[in-house]
């Protein structure tokens, strides 16, 4: 619930006040948090659980392909059709598209949040520290994504309050996913490593295929140095929260 409310409220604040520079900073921080959460904590946790290694790698492959297909179907992420996203659409293009697909954005976002809830539950059941960093990684990723959703909904004719309320309701589906994950995965603990691997595949895919290419568009030294520092900060946050700083 905290992850959903914080990400939606922060996204609304940034969207309504147009703090675009802060959004760019959050993208860089998200990359560090998501990659380090996946590669330094969630995946080792899953592979050290005793589960079949070949099945875990198969799950990782299936997860990467699944997120690729979800992106193709525009059910998971909608950030690549936003005005001002660097794609140079004709003026009004996104308003027309958003008018047709505003409700689909909310449906897709709700499905995404429901899945996030299951992943957070699985992480907490595996390890409380992993649960915290997983929730933190989801918040860091969701803020830039939800900002894009707000922009599309506002272009589609939603008022600020209506866009906020509907996005907030969608975010609370993560609570339903969390409850379902807690009561089902707790009784089927053997599934937890596979859910962790699937979650990691999502974090890796989003960071590598979406967020990092956005960062690469900033090619100057002045723009690149803060990006590198914030990625490092994201890694440091995960190491600190998981108690692995010394290693």
UniProtKB/TrEMBL annotation:
Keywords, comma-separated and alphabetical: Membrane, Transmembrane, Transmembrane helix
Domain of life: Bacteria
Membrane-crossing segments per the record: 56-75, 164-185, 191-208, 228-246
Signal peptide (UniProt feature, chain positions): none
Membrane topology reported for the UniProt record: Multi-pass membrane protein
Presence of keyword Nuclease: no
Transmembrane helix among keywords: yes
Pfam families: Zip
Compartments reported by the entry: Membrane
Cited PANTHER family: ZINC TRANSPORTER SLC39A7 HISTIDINE-RICH MEMBRANE PROTEIN KE4, ZINC TRANSPORTER ZIP13
Name of this protein: ZIP family metal transporter
Organism annotation: Massilia jejuensis
Organism ancestry: Bacteria, Pseudomonadati, Pseudomonadota, Betaproteobacteria, Burkholderiales
């Amino acid at each position: 619930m905290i992850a959903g409310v914080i990400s939606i409220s922060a996204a609304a604040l940034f969207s309504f006040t147009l703090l675009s520079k802060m959004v760019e900073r959050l993208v860089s921080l998200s990359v560090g948090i998501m990659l380090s959460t996946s590669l330094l904590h969630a995946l080792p946790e899953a592979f050290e659980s005793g589960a079949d290694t070949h099945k875990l790698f198969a799950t990782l492959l299936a997860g990467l392909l699944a997120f690729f297909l979800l992106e193709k179907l525009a059910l998971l992420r909608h950030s690549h059709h936003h005005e001002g996203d660097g794609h140079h659409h004709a003026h009004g293009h996104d308003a027309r598209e958003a008018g047709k697909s505003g409700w689909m954005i909310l449906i897709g976002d709700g499905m995404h949040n429901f899945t996030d809830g299951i992943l957070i539950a699985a992480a907490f059941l595996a390890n409380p520290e992993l649960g915290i960093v997983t929730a933190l990684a989801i918040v860091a990723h969701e803020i830039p994504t939800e900002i894009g959703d707000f922009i599309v909904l506002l272009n589609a004719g939603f008022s600020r309050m209506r866009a906020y309320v509907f996005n907030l309701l969608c975010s609370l589906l993560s609570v339903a996913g969390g409850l379902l994950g807690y009561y089902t995965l707790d009784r089927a603990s053997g599934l937890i490593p596979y859910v962790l691997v699937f979650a990691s595949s999502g974090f890796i895919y989003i960071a590598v295929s979406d967020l990092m290419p956005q960062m690469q568009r900033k090619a100057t030294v002045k723009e690149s140095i803060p990006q590198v520092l914030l990625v490092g900060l994201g890694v440091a946050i995960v190491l600190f929260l998981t108690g692995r700083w010394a290693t």
